[in-house]
Amino acid sequence: MLNYVFKRLLGLIPTLLIVAVLVFLFVHLLPGDPARLIAGPEADAEVIELVRKQLGLDQPLHIQFWHYMTNVLQGDFGTSMVSRRPVSEEIASRFMPSLWLTIASMAWAVLFGMTAGIIAAVWRNRWPDRLSMTLAVTGISFPAFALGMLLMQIFSVELGWLPTVGADTWLHYILPSITLGAAVAAVLARFTRASFVDVLSEDYMRTRGLKG
Q1: Helices 2-29, 61-73: inter-axial angle, 10-degree rounding
Q2: Which residues contact 51 (CB under 8 A, 6 or more apart)?
Q3: Which residue ranges make up each domain of the chain?
Q4: Are 175 and 156 in contact (CB under 8 A)?
Q5: Range among 39-43, 109-113, 143-147, 163-167 with highest mean pLDDT value
Q6: Is a pLDDT exceeding 60 seen at residue 211?
């Protein structure tokens, strides 16, 4: 098991390196001058050139990429062009809300997905089964952004029960966790139903049913 995990982690290294190269090249292919954006619209050519030297943008691409990877490995992700704060601080300030949102969405997806799948299997080919599988198909096919907008319109705008933005209380996580977990719950419901139907169709289950 440890060897498998170790091999998988080693396999991530070339993937991450390729992604880093592609992102680095893509950013440099975008139109516009980062130095001019950082310096501001009122900056003259001398100030822009000074900013370019401070950022290392005057160096060849391979040197820039080397410095970029060296800084990343040391935990230095640079400074945000928007907030002027270190990127590591920006990530840290948003990590815990993202973690709680992930946990909440997975928790409710497992709870509702498995419940719907078990109900559908026990009452197979009856209205609970049809209702559960209809909701599952809807959850898979309905886009997450559309579901999120619909939930906000109903529960935030029309009813005013839940907030739309923020992460201060558990109420802020209800709508986004439902939005993110809907597709997972739908897939899990179908998988659970199929597994339970197979189990209920086994000989020992039919024999147990005949014996009461």
Answers
A1: 140
A2: 35, 38, 39, 43
A3: 2-86, 91-211
A4: yes
A5: 109-113
A6: no
Tell me which long-range contacts 121-126 makes (C-beta under 8 A, separation of at least 24): 121/192, 121/193, 121/195, 121/196, 121/197, 121/200, 122/196, 122/200, 124/197, 124/200
Q: Which residues face 79 on adjacent strands? A: 86
| Token digits of residue 167 | 């992460």
As to burial, measured by CB atoms within 10 angstroms (0-12 exposed, 13-18 middle, 19+ buried), residue 173 is buried
**Residue 180 pLDDT greater than 80, yes or no:** yes
Angle at 70 (CA atoms; ends 66, 71), nearest 5 degrees: 120
**How does the average pLDDT of the chain come out, rounded?**
79
Write down the pLDDT at residue 61.
78
Q: Is the pLDDT of residue 208 over 60?
A: no
